[in-house]
Amino acid sequence: GMVKIAFVVKKYGGLKNIEIIRDIGYGCAEEVIRVLKTTEKKWNPASNIGLVDQRVVFQIPFKLKD
């Protein structure tokens, strides 16, 4: 399955407005958010005549075993 997540990379590399767009259950969305939060301040912000906030959307694949 695929978890789809959206968030904003702030102009100084932090994250805000983390939201799950599509969840497959089984705790996958919670794990995506947990891992994403460990990357706080490690993102490169977008620039447009200076640094700007940028909304990002990712799809993260999961393979679940029985």
User: Which sheet architecture does the biggest sheet show?
Assistant: 3 strands, antiparallel
Instruction: Report, as a whole number of angstroms, the end-to-end distance.
Output: 13 Å
Average the pLDDT over all residues and give the rounded result: 93
Widest sheet, order of strands: 2-1-5
Provide an overview of this structure.
This protein has one helix and five strands. The chain has 66 residues and is α+β, with helices and mostly antiparallel strands. It has one domain. A three-stranded antiparallel sheet has the order 2-1-5, with helices on one face. The radius of gyration is 13 Å and the shape is elongated. It starts with a strand and ends in a 5-residue tail after the last strand.
Q: What is this entry, summarized?
A:
With 66 residues, the chain is of the alpha+beta class. It is 15% helix and 42% strand. A hairpin with a 5-residue loop joins strand 1 and strand 2 (15-22).
Highlighted features:
66 residues, alpha+beta, 1 helix, two-stranded antiparallel ribbon
SSE blueprint:
Layout (H helix, E strand, L loop, with lengths): L1 E8 L5 E8 L5 H10 L8 E2 L3 E2 L1 E8 L5
